[in-house]
Amino acid sequence: MRGIIESREKAEHVIATRMHSAFNNGKNEGKIEAAKVMLEIGLSKAEIAAKLGLKETDF
Question: What is the pLDDT of residues 16-28, one digit of tens each?
Answer without folding.
Answer: 887 777 666 667 8
